[in-house]
Amino acid sequence: MTALENRPTTVDFDSPEHQARLADLYRDFEAVGMTPLWRTREGLMPPHPQPKAVPHLWRWDDLYALAARSGDLVPVGRGGERRAIGLGNPGLPGDPYATPTLWAAIQYLNPREDAPEHRHSQSAFRFVLEGEGVWTVVDGDPVAMRRGDLLLTPGWHFHGHQNVSDTPMAWLDGLDVPLVAAVDQGFFEFGPDEVRDKRTPDRSNSERLWGGPGLTPVAAVGARPQSPLMAYRWVHTDAALTAQLELAAEGVEGTLVEPGHAAIRFSNPTTGGDALTTMRTEMHRLTAGTRTRRSRTSASSVWQVFTGGGTVTMDGEVRTLGHGDVVAVPAWTEFSLQAEDGLDLFTFSDAPVFEKLSLLRTQVTEGDDA
Amino acid sequence: MTALENRPTTVDFDSPEHQARLADLYRDFEAVGMTPLWRTREGLMPPHPQPKAVPHLWRWDDLYALAARSGDLVPVGRGGERRAIGLGNPGLPGDPYATPTLWAAIQYLNPREDAPEHRHSQSAFRFVLEGEGVWTVVDGDPVAMRRGDLLLTPGWHFHGHQNVSDTPMAWLDGLDVPLVAAVDQGFFEFGPDEVRDKRTPDRSNSERLWGGPGLTPVAAVGARPQSPLMAYRWVHTDAALTAQLELAAEGVEGTLVEPGHAAIRFSNPTTGGDALTTMRTEMHRLTAGTRTRRSRTSASSVWQVFTGGGTVTMDGEVRTLGHGDVVAVPAWTEFSLQAEDGLDLFTFSDAPVFEKLSLLRTQVTEGDDA
Amino acid sequence: MTALENRPTTVDFDSPEHQARLADLYRDFEAVGMTPLWRTREGLMPPHPQPKAVPHLWRWDDLYALAARSGDLVPVGRGGERRAIGLGNPGLPGDPYATPTLWAAIQYLNPREDAPEHRHSQSAFRFVLEGEGVWTVVDGDPVAMRRGDLLLTPGWHFHGHQNVSDTPMAWLDGLDVPLVAAVDQGFFEFGPDEVRDKRTPDRSNSERLWGGPGLTPVAAVGARPQSPLMAYRWVHTDAALTAQLELAAEGVEGTLVEPGHAAIRFSNPTTGGDALTTMRTEMHRLTAGTRTRRSRTSASSVWQVFTGGGTVTMDGEVRTLGHGDVVAVPAWTEFSLQAEDGLDLFTFSDAPVFEKLSLLRTQVTEGDDA
Amino acid sequence: MTALENRPTTVDFDSPEHQARLADLYRDFEAVGMTPLWRTREGLMPPHPQPKAVPHLWRWDDLYALAARSGDLVPVGRGGERRAIGLGNPGLPGDPYATPTLWAAIQYLNPREDAPEHRHSQSAFRFVLEGEGVWTVVDGDPVAMRRGDLLLTPGWHFHGHQNVSDTPMAWLDGLDVPLVAAVDQGFFEFGPDEVRDKRTPDRSNSERLWGGPGLTPVAAVGARPQSPLMAYRWVHTDAALTAQLELAAEGVEGTLVEPGHAAIRFSNPTTGGDALTTMRTEMHRLTAGTRTRRSRTSASSVWQVFTGGGTVTMDGEVRTLGHGDVVAVPAWTEFSLQAEDGLDLFTFSDAPVFEKLSLLRTQVTEGDDA
After folding, report:
1. Tens digit of pLDDT for each residue in C175-200?
2. How confident is the model over D35-62, as pLDDT tens digits?
3. What region holds the Cupin type-2 domain (chains A, B, C, D) (predicted)?
4. Does the structure's ipTM exceed the value 0.90?
5. Beta bridge pairs of residue D105
6. Are D300 and D331 in contact (CB under 8 A)?
7. CB-based contact (8 Å) between D14 and chain A?
8. Chains that contact D by 3+ CB pairs under 8 Å?
9. Is D272 helix (H, G, I), strand (E, B) or coil?
């Protein structure tokens, strides 16, 4: 072994001789697959998140038109499984990922068409911008999909979809596919080719059992990691947002995120935590003219305009928002929303993952210069 | 110090001399307030719970008639605070306690009458057998009280009641008064003489904020020990019980406590646990002819018939059950219910206390000889 | 039903006629075991805890002398189970309880004497003021008892004691007997008449498995309500208290409860919470001259002087403290300690019960006038 | 919109015309960054984890020799920060990652050399195969590094290293760098160029405060996400492993993972959970001749031989194991170990991440044909 004090202090690190020895070392490193931290540290350990993903906006009209064209050209069936088209972040070329952890897709089902059953460790939800007529069958429980609803498919639940109507239907699919892929946690299994229960009830079994506010079936008491409630209906979501704003107007404190900004989180009634373990799902409402605080969070998120219009500002760049538009917000992007006449947005993010790992950070940047 | 081996093995423990020394010792113990375990162990540490409280049943007609008489004779006001009459278990003479941990009372409010505001560390709820017209105002939030509803007043929330109708109203009050008294945790504070908000809204603020199934206000995210939802409405409770039975009839598994026996637990949406920290509250429904398993639990409970009739069997003694009747079930009482044409019962117990302390035990005794 | 507005406003509540009707009512209440809140509210719901238990101090010399006398006169055996003498609070006559929830007793075992095995739902610990030579056998695991050690017997663990030495040994037993009795949670079962393992190892199995700091056996991973570690040795307790004071002297912040006051809590390594579910156990050390803040808590506690001397002040009354003295502190007693030349005290309380029920309150009263 | 029933059933999906329209569609998808699931599903959602990372083994002699050469050629200083050389999995070319979530590196410090202070959201630990003389200073607390010790640097704690001896020292660094990079959670900040406390105590402050088994400082009570104990000493680890095997030999059940296989998990004394939020750290000991069950887990892991030798079998391929050798085990690799004369191994994995997300799966494959 070589003691430092024995090293001649006259070593000339810039000498050609030294450089040659160094080159040898790096070559030998490479041969055994070793990488010196001192040559990569800055990239590996940035001062704050520097995502490859970029802020991005997709227009609903574009998404829908393309999905409809695929409805004409591509059948749904075993193997491909779904007529779902993933939104690829331009900063992540080659990967159909909205952010490094989140998959967002538009799924399109023709009239009288079925998507076969399967299950996977990835968790999923559907958010319905418009339309109805499709039932998603989750572990044998047919769940109606209607405008404004959030429908869950927690990990490892069998699910298929059937359109019983005479019109096509499209919706937003959200999954943790990129996260699960990045960390090698994917399991997948085929189910029946046809959904196992063709009934089309107004309320799913899960709603009948778990849909009473604060009511737990005694037979099913106990914490579960994922929500047993598979549908969060728009009528309730809308009422809750309306109530928050009304209560604030009546002088009740602590009901709003900030003035003019109501929001609800879809949660797991058995724990009070997020409905899914890997994704946070929320609905936000901004009153006319409201502009949210500028802030950053280390979570990445996707937003979809449900109703109304306005603008989104991401790292200083302003984009207009219209019906159905989808926005990807990478980690640590400075973000704010502004409503024109009123703006309802659905959003999902990977925040619960980082909350559980004590990694989540959030920073209000309002005070900074924009 | 005295070593055992020095004691003459010829000691005669029954000798008058020994008995005299023993009497001296016991007298000296008493002088300093000491009690030998060997003389009290059996009483202190029974093989299983041997409550002083006894199984007991109060007839609603008796309770209501007496409450109504007090409505004529006793005003409600500051100091006495409430026209509430506690049900005293015959096994606990002198104490107005239904069981060693649970207070059950009938409260009666005359037309246009108010009960002044106060708060206490004891948690409380009201269960409404019949009638309407009263609002309980909880921390400034007026909560309508109507037939079949469960209304909460978690510990240290200010609350008062006002009857805005032209008829008297009576209901069941449940509190953890005996538990809190036994362990010296009582704090009490007077509030305004009149309820601070005289409005009579159909839905309380707490319901507007927290009453959406699985919907959490983002501004109020986080676990709370007690439920933020102050009212559990009969319409939801009834629907949930109906659904459990229907689903079971449709072949869905795991929805019932046992065949013919549906039950919901009122829970805290921020945790999924019991709505109150010290009391479990549930609603049970037995279909016509259903007889529950005989079982014992170390929790004590109180039951009130909401609708229907049948019988209760406690430690082998059968009693008929009719509308409004109240039953006290001490710890480790063998207990079962039988429905005649159908039977809905509200119940509360101290089970959450013992669950948290790892003391709760339950035993199905079906297999035993009845 | 009687409507208030129909009551003649001219009713004279003080009239003999009214008083007679009221007396009738109260008699009828009594007949069915009902108690009006308005006549008992003040006693049932005090403004703050008003325990019947009183602050009390027992001298170790008295306790030990009496225990030793019982060693001569009373055998240990099946039925009586233990030569343990409970300290009865003068405010709770008839009950051998130090506080309404805590049992404190001196247990005395003659040389070569055994106490038979049993188990109970009540949790227990032993704290050893002085001496050694006894092994407590917990679920078959012999645990040495030595000066300064805390030994656990969580609920429903079989346990017996054997003295293998030629000298008697006495120690402090702490249990939740009064709490468990008050709420009817007692279960008890006899075990073998002799301890099942007569070995006298230096370290118990539980210490060998669980005694490494931060080391969890992979085969036994998972939260348990009670600690799996049955012995907390004085050598570690002493070192931790010494370190807290040294670190504070070195300028490290956050190591002391207050200046001159070190304290450790005996905890459950599988959760980080209290070692027992119903009792908090701690060791405190005050440096010479240190006087603690005056404070009240709704928990009740028992303290025993381990080494040193000083004074305790309870609700303004000052008592001197010497070796082995035991103090009962009821809920909401204003309490402070003052050390003469240094003072080590063991303490246990019912605080975890009330923490879990969201009932615990603590108030520093330093600023108040004493 | 196009209704399915209007589509001519005579469509020929294989016709050149259809193929052309499809090509158009795919081109248009690409233009807006959309990817059809049906063309990527199999890759995105495999039937079980199909990691790009491969099972791999690095020889300690190779690692050490290269690290020592870099000790001669490369100074440690601000910017590069550490003379740490990351082990790159051959299946993940270009990334210096042992698995998709875990970073493993050999760090080398010359005699009398310092590594400057910094902090980062990534959590880290050091495991010491051999040598001593270095202190890692964690948030101002100098922690000695010695053979067999595990030293923690939880996320966002400042840390630097100093070698006060006359010999170089090398050790294994483990971090969650790949996970944090994949999900954009990296924050980094420089600290002082020299470690802020040059003292070289035998025990760190964290050990003095938190190193007593089951002893919690009252001043610091409460759950923390990461362990406050910065050093887990070999003397304790070794004793715990020895005890598990001895106890099993004495007939105590439940102490071993499987016959001949002892293991401890380094845990957070404030919660009983893993010492770090993102990485599980354990020490395993196999007695001579012991062969572990074959199993797979969806967690990925890295193992380092501490003492002894044997073989590792990964997906059927057998490799010999010697002193200091490092093994990377991707998710779902069938894995088993066999000891020759006895084998001690340190291991770390990403299991806690997936446990928290309800994604972790484990499968014993013993019964399968190898």
Report:
1. 999 999 999 999 999 999 999 999 99
2. 998 988 888 899 999 999 999 999 999 9
3. 107-173
4. yes
5. D86, D173
6. yes
7. no
8. A, C
9. coil
